[in-house]
Amino acid sequence: MKGQPNDRAIILGEYILEHKATVRATAKQFGISKSTVHKDVSERLPKIQPQLYPLVKEVLELNKQERHIRGGLATKEKYAKLEQQKHRC
User: What does the buried/exposed string (b/e) look like for 4-13 if buried means 16 or more CB atoms within 10 Å of the residue's CB?
Assistant: First the structure.
């Protein structure tokens, strides 16, 4: 996603808000780096859309709080798949 950084920041902020998306998921969706997403929504967005920024920040903070839960679930799934593969052999 190329284009004007300010326009991109608004689009990314709206996407995060609409989909309750993580920075990683947003970056993947738009084909850009996580650092670009983070910079756009944390530095550019407050300056160009101050009314949108607090809503986006709330979603990102919630994702940050839930991060350890998602990580634990991913680990659980990983070992469940390994266990299934072990029983197939």
Answer: eeeebbbebb
CB contact set of 17 (below 8 Å; sequence gap of 6+): 52, 55, 56, 59
Residue with tokens 């390994």: 82
Mean of the pLDDT values across residues 43-50? 96
| Structure-block tokens of residue 60 | 């990102």
Model confidence, pTM: 0.77
Element (H, E) at 28: helix 23-30
Residue bearing tokens 């609409």? 18
